Amino acid sequence: MANKTFKIIFQDKDKNITDVKYHLHDTDLAIKWFDKLKHLSRIKIDEVESELIDISNLQKIYADFCSYSGLEKIDIGEIPTQNECNMLHKIYEQNHDRLSRQKNNSILYKFHHAIHYAEKADKSSKSKINIGWGVKEGPLTQNMNCHPFYENQLKKNNLYLPWAELGKTPYTYWGDNEPCDQTRFNSLCKPHMTFRAKFFIALFDLKKPTVFPNRFNQYFNQFKSAWLDKYKIDDWSEKHEWCAPLLAHTDDKIDLFSMHFKKIEI
Question: Strand, helix or coil at 141?
Answer without folding.
Answer: coil
